[in-house]
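re: the backbone from monday

yeah here it is again, tokenized this time
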């Protein structure tokens, strides 16, 4: 078990509370409001998070976790927790899923109290919390509220990182995603990077573990050298600083997008097949969620989702330039025949029912998100 400095009292060790959320970075970050609600409700407990060990630094950065119990399973499976050390936890909380599997692995530890959606006589299940179709942040706060634990879905921000950014003020492009269904084609990301670079922006390409070739492919398509590629698993402190100090982040629906939300960094996130109302950024001028509504697909599919493929390069470029508009003037965008495309024409082209109105400063024109933004 990896721990932060563990506060000690004059008498016995603090009671221990185990939270299961052994998923990815984005899942951890959307769970921050719930974790902080747990921290406030159980101020005298040592809060241990069962999560992949690679997320230890990120978990401790939330300020809601005292220690991390290494736990992970293939895909989005439920890991075993039999290596929990010492006596049974005083409290065990399931923030992993709504089914019996995750509740059962916690029940096997015989905690003093079990809080889980799938627990016997669960008040959250009785209220139909999972059926409401709420945003992920709100959903887990609602589950806790059913158990009398207050949590604020808006309490998702992370503190400013202490590490320096390796590319302060750059436009950061992250083309990767855990599943191919949420991975926009590399050549399109390359075209976006090339257009932004031609407009005078510094562009860096980010890649996670195993995404080195993808990041290099995107960079090469944009005429960027290896020095503008950060890939292979950037340490969390450096990653957090990179995103926090970026001009804008352009990515798919992945953990890095949630990190931009956590730092208030302007972002352009490409959605498909999951709509942004379930996991996207909060509404407002800092974030643009691009989404073409349509039949839902498999978020873990092996091919890019058709809804994701409906998003065009022009939409992404214009949104990124709008967010980074203080750096340099937005260049003229032309169609295939060389004729200029006015911003109003582009907005008419991509606007869909349910799009939020622009709420920026007077005289500015924000590109419309193609569908829903936030919950």
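seq for it, each position gets an aa:
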């Amino acid at each position: 078990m990896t721990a932060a400095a563990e506060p000690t009292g004059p008498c016995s060790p603090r009671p221990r509370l185990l939270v299961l959320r052994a998923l990815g970075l984005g899942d951890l970050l959307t769970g921050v409001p719930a974790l902080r609600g747990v921290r406030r409700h159980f101020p005298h407990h040592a809060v241990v998070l069962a999560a992949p060990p690679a997320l230890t630094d990120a978990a401790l950065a939330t300020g809601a976790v005292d220690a991390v119990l290494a736990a992970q399973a293939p895909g989005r499976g439920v890991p075993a927790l039999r290596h929990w050390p010492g006596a049974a936890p005083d409290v065990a909380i399931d923030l992993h899923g709504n089914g019996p599997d995750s509740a059962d692995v916690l029940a096997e530890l015989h905690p003093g109290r079990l809080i889980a959606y799938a627990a016997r006589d669960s008040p959250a299940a009785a209220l139909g919390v999972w059926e409401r179709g709420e945003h992920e942040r709100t959903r887990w706060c609602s589950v806790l509220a059913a158990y009398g634990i207050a949590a604020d879905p808006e309490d998702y921000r992370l503190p400013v990182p202490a590490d320096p950014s390796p590319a302060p003020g750059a436009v950061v492009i992250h083309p990767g995603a855990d599943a191919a269904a949420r991975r926009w084609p590399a050549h399109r990301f390359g075209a976006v990077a090339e257009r932004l670079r031609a407009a005078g922006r510094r562009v860096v390409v980010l890649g996670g573990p195993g995404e080195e070739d993808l990041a290099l492919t995107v960079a090469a398509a944009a005429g960027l050298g290896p020095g503008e590629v950060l890939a292979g698993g950037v340490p969390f402190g450096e990653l957090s600083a990179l995103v926090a100090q970026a001009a804008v982040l352009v990515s798919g629906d992945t953990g890095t997008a949630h990190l931009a939300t956590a730092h208030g960094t302007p972002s352009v996130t490409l959605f498909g097949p999951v709509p942004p109302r379930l996991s996207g950024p909060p509404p407002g001028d800092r974030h643009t969620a691009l989404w073409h509504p349509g039949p839902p697909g498999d978020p873990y599919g092996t091919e890019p989702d058709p809804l994701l493929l409906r998003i065009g390069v022009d939409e992404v470029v214009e949104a990124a330039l709008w967010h980074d508009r203080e750096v340099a003037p937005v260049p003229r965008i032309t169609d295939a025949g060389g004729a200029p495309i006015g911003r109003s024409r582009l907005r008419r082209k991509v606007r869909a029912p349910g799009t939020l109105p622009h709420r920026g400063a007077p005289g500015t024109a924000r590109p419309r998100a193609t569908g829903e933004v936030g919950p």
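The CA atoms of residues 318 and 367 lie 7 Å apart. The two ends are 35 Å apart (CA to CA).
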